[in-house]
Amino acid sequence: MPELVAPVPLSTSEGGTGARRRPKLLDLLAVIPFGAYVVIFLIIPTLVVVIGAFGANPEDGGGATLENIKALGSRQVVDAFVFSISLSAASALIGAVLGALLAYAVATAKPDGLLRRIVTSACAVLAQFGGVTLAFAFYATIGLTGFVTVYLADHFDVNIFSGGVWLFELPGLTLVYTYFQIPLMVIVFLPALDGIRPQWREAAESLGGSTWQYWRLVGGPLLAPAFLGSTLLLFANAFSAYATAAALVSQGSPIVPLQIRGALTSEVLLGQENVGKALALGMVVVVAIVMWLYALLQRRTSRWLG
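Structure for ABC transporter permease subunit, as requested:
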């Protein structure tokens, strides 16, 4: 009967241990720049906003107070939040629907075709096309003296502002915001469309299912979490936008970011800096809730389409 020999454990020399630890150390070193970026531009500003929102002005003796939070209940601030949420929701829904249709057209094209490369490259640029440049483009096009406005008035006797100057109100801002929401939707929703496998549709057709049945029972439920998540991302993008509205709206502060600017820079109402931080804290809470829902939907999307 052969003798049983116990297995000898592999020896771990110092060189082997160091070889295994070295990649982990290099990984940590590679994360340091990103960690510093997060601390400097995310964590520290958030702490400044939170502390300032619950802090009294130095002129009032400092200390903790709830007066800044109570200011969020004023009629002007509530109207600004309602307007911002309405603007963000309207531009997000319109941008999501039109962007999803454009993304579907791109997804059905050749993967390496010229059309897909042109559309995706254009969307990557237009999604970042905002601020003063976008505001000037719309004002020069359909503003009070824009060339489209003047052309329609001179040649067709059509006054697009006969019912009021809507460009600086909710309909106009929704139109301007939709301009950069559509390309952003294409960028974030196209990967989900690429995850739909052609074999699923072929299987549905082989079982006698129609196109409507495929999208209602297979494609639609699979893409629904990705579509809703992308819509939430568009909402957060519009809710936090500042430069475009600041350049377009010269009077008043209809949205929360402009309210924050007024609280921080106003020369009429002094000592409102911490009220501005309380407004910023309200925006942080809204965006945090939206991004939490977005993360949940993305997790479900990756489970089905990953």
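Residues 47 and 305 are 37 Å apart (CA to CA).
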